[in-house]
Design brief:
The chain is of the alpha+beta class. Among the domains are: 25-174, Adenine-n6-DNA-methyltransferase TaqI, Chain A, domain 2, CATH 3.90.220; 256-402, Alpha-Beta Complex (Adenine-n6-DNA-methyltransferase TaqI, Chain A, domain 2). Helix content is 35%, strand content 23%. A five-stranded mixed sheet has the order 4-12-8-10-6. Strand 13 (155-156) and strand 14 form a beta hairpin. Helix 6 packs antiparallel against helix 12. The N and C termini lie close together (11 Å).
Length: 457
């Protein structure tokens, strides 16, 4: 949609805003609104009144706040309810963030209730009547031109905060009230269309990921589809037999079921340690964060240990073809050791599994361990705790399907190709989502800074 420009503009005097329409004002926010910071925490107390709390994530993930959202139920004092109770038209922003570039995210209070209260780490901005409208202010905060001022004002090291004074000192473009409302109506309509389109694309991404997961699990437990089996010189639609395991079901008759420990020559865990000294250069240490979809990637904060330290733990020094597996926290993440990782070592939350090449191909095992079938098997043997951990005996006792070696190689090769196709499709849709979100932000910025004229459209 081609939108017209305003016929006459003037310099705003603010670098981030550029020129604005000639009849617009540019003022500091504190001239048109009041701002204050909430200190209401989440901890209930017996001598307080019940409230529903608008928390950080409620604001961060939503454009609008209403009482019918799933809000936290807690308590607050009568004074806190009076001071931090939310009104229709209030804009609530995140005043703290782990990233300076992700601060002052806004949400507009569309509906309210007597017990709806603003929580900690948030600031309330209440517009002056007939001067500034909350629905326009929401879009101003979402624009790059206004948000850049808050990014610069944010201070901190590991966590960034926005001073209250910096919120009030921000410059905002200020059209007449009727034009503010016209801009807000236009942006509500257009961002709604974009959001619905993004939602459909995200649903497509989820379906593609579900298809990928189903393809992996079906192939590692039932074998190749007929066309792929024929191309690999393998039997098409082989007869099935009961696996003997209710949760696995039937498997091809020429497959076996074996305990996980039978697939490996060695399974080693890094010993508990407390005196590891890291060095600037040395032997690479592999951590759980480096295990990404069957590969071991290099991290930005890569850590190294000295060769002397490495030699103290020879059983966990990695060889080509080994599989590294996470057994604590996010369990079951795996990566196959390639040539460039030979000689590296692992941390205490990982295992080194050395496949028995007469029993299993590392590439097949990598796909097997990434299947939903294996994730379910892990859940069965692990206690449900805050941080899940699987012991070596528990892992070793898991039953796995074992195709013949040539079929294992064919399955791995087939999944390499087919998942790459699905990953490419997901990548294209994710790129489309990113571009739609960039366009959304650009459209908001253009409208609230007067680069496009939306009245009479």
């Amino acid at each position: 949609m081609k939108l017209p420009a305003y016929p006459r503009t003037k310099p705003s005097g603010v670098e981030w805003l550029g020129d604005v329409p000639e009849h617009w004002a540019v003022k500091r926010l504190k001239t048109s609104a009041i701002c204050w910071v909430s200190n209401v925490d989440k901890v209930p107390a017996e001598d307080e009144l019940p409230v529903r709390l608008c928390n950080y994530t409620d604001v961060y993930y939503n454009d609008h706040i209403t009482p019918d959202m799933e809000l936290m139920e807690t308590t607050a004092t009568a004074d806190e309810i009076r001071r931090f109770g939310l009104r229709v038209g209030d804009v609530v922003i995140t005043k703290d963030s782990e990233e300076w570039s992700d601060i002052a995210v806004p949400a507009l209070v569309k509906k309210t209730a007597p017990d709806l209260v603003c929580g900690y780490h948030l600031a309330i901005i209440r517009s002056k009547a007939k001067v500034l409208f909350g629905d326009y202010l929401l879009r101003a905060f979402q624009s790059c031109a206004v948000n850049q001022q808050f990014q610069i004002a944010a201070s901190g090291v590991t966590r960034y905060g926005l001073p209250k004074s910096s919120i009030g000192d921000a410059w905002i473009p200020l059209p007449e009230p009727a034009e503010q409302q016209a801009i807000a109506v236009f942006l509500d309509r257009e961002t709604g269309r974009l959001d619905r389109l993004v939602g459909r694309k995200r649903e497509l991404i989820e379906r593609l990921k579900e298809k990928r997961a189903a393809l992996i699990s079906r192939t590692v437990t039932r074998g190749l589809p007929p066309a792929a089996a024929r191309a690999a010189g393998l039997p098409e639609n082989p007869p099935l037999k009961p696996s003997g395991l209710e949760w696995l079901g039937d498997i091809p008759t020429h497959w076996e079921v074996k305990r996980l420990k039978r697939f490996f020559k060695h399974i080693y865990r890094y010993p508990t340690y407390y005196d590891i000294q890291y060095v600037d250069e040395g032997v690479r240490e592999i951590r759980g964060e480096a295990l990404v979809d069957g590969e071991i990637v290099e991290l930005e904060d890569q850590r190294f240990i000295s060769p002397e330290t490495n030699s103290r733990f020879p059983q966990t020094i990695l060889e080509v073809g080994d599989i590294v597996m996470s057994v604590r926290g996010t369990m079951g993440k795996v990566g196959v050791v390639r040539l460039n990782l030979r000689g590296a070592n692992i941390t205490a939350n990982l295992l080194r599994l050395s496949p028995d090449q007469g029993q299993a191909k590392p590439e097949f095992l990598s796909w097997l361990f990434r299947s939903s079938f294996f994730a379910q098997a892990l859940d069965r043997v692990c206690p449900q705790t805050t941080i899940q951990t699987v012991t070596m005996p528990q892992l070793a006792a898991i039953d796995l399907p074992r195709p013949p070696l040539p079929e294992q190689a064919a399955i791995a090769a087939y999944l390499d190709v087919e998942t790459a196709k699905l990953d490419a499709l997901v990548g294209k849709v994710e790129t489309a989502v990113e571009r739609l979100q960039e366009y959304r932000t650009a459209l908001i910025t253009a409208a609230v800074t007067g680069k496009i004229r939306v009245t009479n459209i």
